[in-house]
């Protein structure tokens, strides 16, 4: 851990071990808080968000009182996200992918329409308030469906072209606010849809307990030993896929704007289908589910603890008003468009919840909201895979073209 005093203020840069330790402890803090507050249980608010937000609040308190400035190394978040997505892609059997192809394409098309609507709302509100229309695009499509990476790519250009002072910091504040709101609203929206339409998950339990018990009894080795081996196999496959993806990116995709994790996910899907086709080795579902849930929980805990809540203070009241108009649009779109077009059933509900979250900055928040609901109502493996493919791959690529097009016409 590095620390130094600058202008009489202590600046602390915790290393990855300290950051990870704080995030893991915050998870158990979240479990404790949620167990004591029935409303949080009823609304299915994700545990890592509940525990991580107080940590982010304490760091904000240190900052605004000039006690200390704590900056986490958020590169760890990217590594954990890549690990999770690679592991998630090991679920990608050909049957599962083929079944979800048309849903993914429709989901993607609907998300692109929402991106245009976000731009129209932002630009229209800015014109009414006498602000530059590109600020509306920045607060709308770029911050909402784009997220931090898109803001970092486009905000400097908008600042330079339109002389909008502090636009990048303001947009980062909008993304931070969007992340918080998506984790506060996403799962409750799912609970509302489940209650209103009496939705039932056909996969009511995580596993068939009787089948699992029979499998344990038939195994020549103790269950703990067998499960350990299967977990080690999942970890080995995940790291191999990440290594192959990294090598592929280095030698073939250096000048191509594609997220690093895409290649890792593709190799994971290829390896999974090779295993299923040849029976050379197996991928155990119990071990895979356990590890993906653990890694996703760690990622959300890291992301929440490292939230720069002070960024929200840079948001002016006009931009704050536009942000809440965008929030209203996103909620209405998730409730009436995503849910109605992607199936008025349990899976459609999950797509609405996940779509709301990646429409407000971060796809990982959608996965966390979905996981919180699935822990209560049962799993949906293909729902997680579809959301990841659409929110983290297809939209990441198409957003660049969509935003450039919107900047040209507006």
UniProtKB/TrEMBL annotation:
The chain crosses the membrane at residues 12-33, 45-64, 76-94, 106-125, 170-194, 234-252, 258-275, 287-309, 315-336, 348-367, 387-409. One of its GO terms (molecular function) is glutamate:sodium symporter activity. One of its GO terms (cellular component) is membrane. GO terms for biological process: L-glutamate transmembrane transport. InterPro entries: GltS (IPR004445). Keywords: Membrane, Transmembrane, Transmembrane helix. This is Sodium:glutamate symporter. The lineage of its organism: Bacteria, Pseudomonadati, Pseudomonadota, Betaproteobacteria, Burkholderiales.
């Amino acid at each position: 851990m590095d620390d130094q005093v600058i202008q009489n203020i202590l600046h602390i840069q915790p290393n990855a071990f300290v950051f990870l330790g704080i995030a893991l402890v915050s998870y158990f803090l979240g479990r404790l808080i949620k167990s004591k507050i029935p409303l949080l249980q009823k609304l299915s608010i994700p545990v890592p968000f509940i525990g991580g937000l107080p940590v982010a609040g304490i760091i904000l308190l240190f900052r605004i009182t000039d006690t200390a400035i704590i900056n986490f190394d958020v590169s760890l978040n990217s590594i954990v996200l890549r690990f999770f997505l690679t592991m998630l892609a090991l679920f990608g059997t050909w049957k599962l992918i083929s079944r979800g192809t048309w849903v993914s394409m429709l989901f993607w098309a609907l998300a692109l329409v929402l991106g245009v609507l976000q731009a129209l709302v932002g630009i229209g509100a800015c014109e009414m308030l006498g602000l530059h229309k590109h600020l509306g695009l920045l607060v709308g499509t770029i911050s909402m469906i784009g997220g931090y990476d898109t803001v970092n790519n486009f905000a400097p250009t908008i600042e330079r072209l339109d002389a909008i002072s502090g636009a990048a910091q303001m947009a980062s504040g909008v993304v931070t606010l969007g992340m918080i709101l998506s984790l506060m609203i996403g799962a409750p929206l799912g609970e509302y849809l489940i209650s209103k339409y009496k939705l039932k998950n056909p996969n009511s339990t995580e596993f068939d307990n009787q089948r699992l018990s029979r499998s344990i009894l038939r195994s020549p080795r103790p269950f703990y030993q067998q499960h350990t081996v299967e977990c080690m196999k999942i970890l080995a496959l995940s790291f191999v896929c990440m290594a192959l993806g990294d090598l592929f990116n280095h030698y073939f995709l250096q000048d191509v704007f594609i997220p690093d994790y895409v290649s890792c996910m593709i190799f994971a899907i290829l390896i999974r289908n090779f295993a299923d086709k040849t029976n050379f080795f197996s991928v155990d579902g119990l071990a895979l589910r356990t590890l993906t849930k653990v890694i996703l929980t760690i990622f959300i805990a890291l992301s929440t603890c490292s939230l720069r809540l002070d960024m929200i203070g840079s948001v002016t009241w006009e931009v704050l008003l536009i942000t809440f108009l965008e929030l209203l649009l996103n909620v209405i779109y998730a409730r009436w468009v995503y849910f109605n077009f992607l199936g008025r059933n349990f899976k459609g509900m999950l797509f609405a919840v996940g779509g709301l979250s990646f429409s407000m900055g971060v796809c990982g928040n959608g996965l966390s909201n979905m996981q919180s609901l699935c822990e209560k109502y049962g799993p949906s493996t293909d729902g997680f895979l579809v959301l990841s493919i659409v929110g983290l791959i297809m939209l990441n690529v198409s957003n660049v073209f969509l935003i450039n097009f919107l900047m040209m016409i507006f």
